[in-house]
Amino acid sequence: MRNKQKDILYLLHLPPPVHGSSIVGEFVKESPLINNSFHGRYINLLMSRSVNETGKTSFIKLFRFIAIWIELFGKLIHRRPDLCYYALSTTGAAFYKDCFLVGLLRIFHVKTIYHLHNKGIRHNQHKKVNDLLYRFVFKNTSVILLSEQLYLDVERYVLPWKVYYCPNGIKDYQVETELLSLQEDKTLKILFLSNLFTTKGVFDLIEACSLLKEKGYRFTCDFIGGEGDVNEQQFNDYVKQKKLTNQVKYLGKRFGKLKEMAYEQADVFVLPTYYPNECFPLVILEAMQHSLPVISTFEGGIPDMVKDGINGFLIPQRNVIALAERLELLVRYPLLRKQMGKDGRMKYENNFTLSIFEHKLLSILQDAIK
What we know:
Low-confidence stretches: 177-183
Distance between the termini: 19 Å
Largest sheet: 6 strands, parallel
Number of strands: 12
Number of helices: 16
Shape: globular
Mean pLDDT: 93
């Protein structure tokens, strides 16, 4: 007789808004491999419905939280799962919200594994209330991390043998013929793709572009993403102040083929992030997938994706001069750009495809549910 499928309750983030954790949550929810292996039930933990709502409190978000708590309670009453897969937030109001949901899981004695898509525990653990809550949340649980680089963030609360490692993966993309016929010119096309937050390095990249212009290099730099703590007016004012209106443009959000075309038309991808909760930016994987050299920083799991001098460059955070110097190298040496792009594509194919991610996550869930 065929064994009955194990039941997993997935508490995860689903778009909108679109960001790394919600994209991965959607991958998990839509994965035939994972869905055929377990009986799954799903709850969307996101209370924000747009980037602008993120990090802000409101009555509508409180109402959404109450609805989530009631939904979780109802599912636990109906049938206690064999395992709860939880995309836990680790800092701020989202973490305190998650503590209430974790408390409910504890009342029902549900075995739980956390999948961490952000960090910040090490920075916040010194407050007594946070320390107590982290001890409560991580007691007798396993954790999935995106990179070994991130273990330092949880080492106070999670033993090494309770940790699984599962790098993110993304759907493959093959270049369409109409995009291959784009005319070549000698103008370097720089791409930044992320929501406009100061800590993502928005102003650092604009300043680096100013240094490139002073040296007489030809380039364009497109910024794509939603408005964050930097809005379109602030962005354009700074670009105008730096006299870069002909070189630097904010194009707003891009999805689907428009986003793919932006990658295909670019020569180099830049994410000079110093965002404190940065873990494993999917946009870097997308750039590697499109054979682009990547310039980024030593933050979170980024060193697992970008090998300095091989498929791109890693620079110190907030170092505009170093950023401008690496861009200058890629302007002057187009063959270096091409080779780095090829190395990035190969690294993506060998490590970061969606299929590799799905099989790795399936193996982890099968082990955790025993």
